[in-house]
Design brief:
331 residues; D-Maltodextrin-Binding Protein, domain 2; alpha/beta
Length: 331
Amino acid sequence: MIRRCLFALLWLLSALSFNVWAQTPIVIKFSHVVAKDTPKGKAAEKFKELAEAATKGRVKIEIFANSTLYKDKEELEALQLGAVQMLAPSMAKFGPLGIKEFELFDLPYLFTDQASLERVTNGPVGQEMLKRLEPKGLIGLSYWDNGFKIMSSNRPMHAPADLRGLKLRIQASKVLDEEMRVLGANPQVMAFSEVYQALQTGVVDGLENVPSNLYTQKMHEVQKHMTVTNHGYIGYAVVVNKKFWEKLPADIRSQLDAAMKEATQYANKIAQQENEQALDAIRKSGKTTVYVPTEAEKNEWRKVFQPVYKAMEDRIGKDLIAAASKAAAAK
């Protein structure tokens, strides 16, 4: 009788333990380095909303914006170690991991518009590149757009020669480094969270970035001039820790995949709108003069940047550059 009671008690404790475990939500820490009200910040919040609803509370998404958890250089290491489960780093950040091919997205004027970009990210080139993340312990889920970059400095920039001698902040990317050098500028690698103070104190003279990032970080308040070159692209690859992802129940993974797909559509839809609104707000602030190049001036920028392609063939891959260029130019 006593033995039966002990077995019954053990069974009850086991059942209670299982129920507690089953009711404990799976936590996904999602870290990023930009403001909450940027396209990436809003997309992360949208994914949180969709994922928690789809899984009926079985998954909890904790979002850490504005480098509150990790800075630029720390993010991917934290993901590989499992300290965070999800990131949306810019393409240039995969270079230090040995996946230099992602710097393809930094090539100037590779994309002419949103459609040309999507022919690469949604096509064989973009999907093949996501697969290259797996040997590094990462799984690529999607691409999120942030838009096209403009130039910013305390000097009017009507022609490429106007940037000669300036110290310009860049991400850690050999492509971006070469881009600045063909302009005659001095590239300065710096974490995004440090840029405002560096601009304010004159440590750097300017930078390239999308209008929404410039505006939400108040960089227009410490820059006198911006030129709408739209010369480069900033986008993000949404990645998860491979071990964590593969241990999730199949139904949870399916629900998160669906939430990510919807969040991606939302992110890429709002990116252009957010940048247009930010640029308009920068103009209205009266703190920065915004210059739009003529078509002839844009052609001059394109011509100056052409040597970057040749210089990066060994790093990115001549065939990859050719395949992406062909896809981007296809009709």
